[in-house]
Every structure is written in C-alpha cells, then in structure tokens.
Amino acid sequence: MTQSRTHNCNELRLSDAGKQVTLVGWFENIRKVSKNLGFVILRDFYGTTQIVVETEEMMAVIDSVNKESTISVTGEVRERSSKNTELPTGEIEVVPTSIEILGKCTHNELPFEINRSKEADENTRLKYRYLDLRNPEVKSKIILRSKIVAELRASMIAHDFMEITTPILTCSSPEGARDYLVPARNHPGKFYALPQAPQQFKQILMASGFDRYFQIAPCFRDEDARADRSPGEFYQLDMEMAFASQEDVFAVIEDVLPPIFAKYGVYNSASTAPFVRIPYLESMDKYGSDKPDLRIDLVLQDATEVMADCGFGPFEGNVVKAIVVDNLTATRKQIDAMIAEVEVATAQKTYWFKLDENGEIVGGIAKFLQERKQAVIDALGLKPGDFVGLAAGPLLVAQKTAGVFRKLLGAAAEGHMKKDTYEFCWIVDFPMYEIGEESGELEFCHNPFSMPQGGMDSLKNQEPLDILAYQYDLVCNGVELSSGAIRNHDPEIMIEAFKLVGLGEDDVKAKFPAMYNAFTYGAPPHGGIAPGVDRMVMLIAGEEAIREVIPFPMNKNAQDIMMDAPATVDQKQLDDVHIAIVMPKED
C-alpha cells in the first residue's frame, strides 16, 4: 500500500506548481460539475487542499466512496484560475493521476455535518466524538490545550521544579468530594481510591527532601457537572515548594501564568505581578463572592441601616446589600429577566429602584422609600439616573445574592466591565473553620492540612470561627482556578486542629498514617497550589463550557456515551473482586 505523503494539506503554495505530490486525508466534500469534472476538498490534521478531478476514471473512484473516507491522492500541483485568498492553499490545486482508497466510510449519512458539529445535540456530539473532533474548530481547542500544557511544563521546569508522578491507586482521603473506589482483588473487603488530588503524596515528597515538585496531575472526584467543572476526572498543575512562604508560592504562579494567558488567550492582556490580594471577608463584603470578577468595577454597599425598617417585609430584621449602577439603560423586561436569573442561581429574590432625572425615587420598591428619600440618596451617594439593585437576608445570603446580581449588572451596564483582559487576584485569609450547612457542626472551611495563622496559640486561645488560615484561592475573571495553602507540617498542631472538629489523635494517625509519621521525622515548612488545567484552557480559549476543551469529556450525568461507560460487568469479574451488587429498591 502506497500512502506516504510528500506534503500535508496545508503546505502547498504557488511556488510548488509543477511538482508531483502525494496527499492523504479525509474526503470532505465534492462540487460535481459533470461526469468528468469535480472539485474535491481533501482535509487532514493540518488543513485542506482542493483536488480537481478531470477524468471519468478519477471520478469513478470518488463516486465509489462516501464522504469522510480516507484517500491518498497523487498528482501535479498547478495554479488555480479562481483563487481563494482566505485559504493558505487557496492559490493552488492538485490534479490527480491516481486516487487510492485507504479507509472507507461505510455510512451514506453522517450524524452531523463535520464543519457544523457544534450545532448538533450534545449527546450526539459525545457519542460520535471521533467525528466531532474532525471539525477544525473543535480540534483547534484540543491543539491549544496541548500547547498550553507544554508551555506550563516548560515554565515549571525553568523555575527549577521537578516533575514527579504520584500513584493513581491510593487510599481514601477527605478532600471534600466523593471518592471513586476500586476493589482490591487480593484483599477482600478492602478498596483503593482514585486520588481526588495528590495532596498527601506531594506533602510527603516535601518531607522526603524534594525541594520543588510539580506534575500535570489527573484527579478523580465523583461530583456533578457544571459549566466550569467536568464530572469524573480533571487535570491540574499540581505544585509544592519546601521552605516556602505564601509569597513564594504567589511569586511562581504570578510569573508562570500571565505570559501563557497573554500569548494564547482570546484576550491578549493579563494581570502582571503582583496580583491583587483580597482578604476573604473583604471579598464577600465588597463583591458578594470569594471569586470576584475584577473586570467589573461595581461594589456592594451596606444599606441595612437606612432600609431595614422601611416597612418592606423582606428587609425587616435582615442585612440589606445594594449595588449602585449608572449608565444602565435596561428596559423593565430586561431588569425582570436579570432578577429571575438571580433567583434561579441563588433561590433568593432581589429588588430594585431608580433615581430619575428629577431626583425622584421610582420603580420597584420605590413606594417604601419615599419618606426617607434623602437619607437613601445620601447613604448610597446616588445621583440622578442611578439604578440600585438590592438583596436581603442573613449576612452571607445577602452578600452572595447581591454578588450574583452584581455580575449581571456589570455585564449589562455600559462602561462597568473590561471585557478584553484577564484579571487575576488572590483571595487570602480564609477562615480555618466554618459551621457545616448540612451537619450544623464545626468543619474545616477549606483544606484540613492548612496551617492556622497563629499556629498552636490560635487553636488554643481563639474562638474557632475567628481563626484564619494560610489558605488562598487563585481567581481569574470570576472563575476559581485553584485553591492552595501553606501546609500544617507540625504533628502537634495537626492533632490540635483536628481535635476541634471532633477527631482525636488516634483518628489522625489512622486516617493519615504516612503523612503524620513522615512529619514526626522532621518536615520543612511547605506550601503549594494546583490550578485547574481544564479551567485555564477554557478561559484562554474563551469557551463557556469546559467540555469543549477536553478531548473525551463525559456528559452531564458522568457518562462516557462513546465508550458506554459506566457499564455492567459479568459475574466472574464481580466474584474476582468479592463484590455483590444490591440494587436500590424502587419506590
């Protein structure tokens, strides 16, 4: 079989006219003029080339196969009489002397047109992902991902980090999501877990004397899909540094990421070092979010004192947060749509009013504010034409609801959002503990392996909810790229930290035996972070859905419908790993 190509389908130029060449690729389309004249588009990984069929013999070969078959074309390059200046190969065409069929497409009809695959139903795209990936637009995102990963790897190595791979089969660890469990055939009744993150291993590497570690790490979490989160598995730029402070970690990330975002991103500018540092409590108070989009210049104001007793029921006894916006030209219908969108996202209602050009409060809840008009204007610094969005509830509820409203208003109002840049920031000083929404009991707020600010003294002498941790989040354009921390490397402080959430010394030793024991042999202060690769590529590519930048993503139900996974297995396989299936009872 002769198939060695001399050129790819994006390579030939006018200077190649007269050459004998061999091209290979997919038969994309044909514009048939007559029984012995047709214009074929041949596509490979690199691009397309026009093939001009001028004989009945060559036309018979093309007529014998369906579109998307793979073929080899040998022929002469010549100048096109009708040039296409939009294509790199648009000045030439190839006249074939032979066409060989390499791989037949046996289907007369495709599930979708290749170049319009993004218009197809998502499940159809995922089932026929191998066809979807032939679409140059879809393929380009995977190529971009490869380039970004290569650049990340090169930059980390240039910063003296060593790439070390950590185990995939490990033990269950409390990372905040459900584990994927793997039964151990030789150890009946026991299970491995796929790592939610290489957390313990990278900390043990620090205790082992490795100074700077990184890897492009696969992580596995049994959690639901979101637009910015893929179910099942994802990848992160995992890194850890020994003898490092929080600022040391920040310095590396601030040096590695912005050039990559600026080089490959849909926006060609990105924040430069140092990124803005915002304490968690300040971020919630000003932006209503611990992942604020700093491209938006709107901030939350506290309107509790001036509005809580205005007679409007939802405000009574609650915190009231306000967002003041000028240049909002939205119609009543558009305002109602934003309010409905906030309610879908938060399950909370929002409210509004405007100060008209005559200085009168109108619209929304205006009637409740007439008697205190001037106090409201003064408290919020209003000027004619201003729109005011409002949220109310317990402090955290009011903040989060107003934060969602802020993002929508910032995008809708003229001049309040820079849309052509990547704005990074650090959210710092997270609380060490919180009261769990489901349990109602004290829980770790972020990472249980973080060092509390103040060390042992804070654990023993401060109220648990007042203790801050050396924890930080990296945020870009309102998307959380990563959480990180300076780690708790002191076994005594570790035991005291876990004691506050009801886990004793024996529990700590039982749950984290390797890491705990390693730390008892002298561990360095260390810290790290792990920005999500999938989310980074999504932002850089300007995509709204993370599945667009993953080669073989699962659907929203964590199913790989191309490979039909998850799937049933036969009884012998179950017996080998000592598993009996008990199906849930039907209601």
TrEMBL record:
Encoding gene, per UniProt annotation: aspS
Protein name: Aspartate--tRNA ligase
EC number: 6.1.1.12
Main location as per UniProt: cytoplasm
Subcellular location(s) per record: Cytoplasm
Summary of subunit composition and partner proteins: Homodimer.
Family recorded in the similarity comment: Belongs to the class-II aminoacyl-tRNA synthetase family. Type 1 subfamily.
Keyword Mitochondrion on entry: no
An example Gene Ontology CC term for this record: cytoplasm
GO biological process: aspartyl-tRNA aminoacylation
UniProt binding sites for L-aspartate: E175, R221, H446, R487
Assigned keywords, A-Z: Aminoacyl-tRNA synthetase, ATP-binding, Cytoplasm, Ligase, Nucleotide-binding, Protein biosynthesis
PANTHER family for this protein: ASPARTATE--TRNA LIGASE, MITOCHONDRIAL (PTHR22594:SF5), ASPARTYL/LYSYL-TRNA SYNTHETASE (PTHR22594)
Binding-site positions, ATP: R221, D222, E223, E480, G532, V533, D534, R535
Catalytic activity annotation: tRNA(Asp) + L-aspartate + ATP = L-aspartyl-tRNA(Asp) + AMP + diphosphate
GO molecular function: aspartate-tRNA ligase activity; ATP binding; catalytic activity, acting on a protein; nucleic acid binding; transferase activity
InterPro entries: Aa-tRNA-synt_II (IPR004364), aa-tRNA-synth_II (IPR006195), aa-tRNA-synth_II/BPL/LPL (IPR045864), Asp-tRNA-ligase_1 (IPR004524), Asp-tRNA-ligase_1_N (IPR047089), Asp/Asn-tRNA-synth_IIb (IPR002312), AspRS_core (IPR047090), GAD-like_sf (IPR004115)
Keyword set includes Cell division: no
Stated role: Catalyzes the attachment of L-aspartate to tRNA(Asp) in a two-step reaction: L-aspartate is first activated by ATP to form Asp-AMP and then transferred to the acceptor end of tRNA(Asp).
Spans annotated as Aspartate: 199-202
Domain spans labelled Aminoacyl-transfer RNA synthetases class-II family profile: 144-551
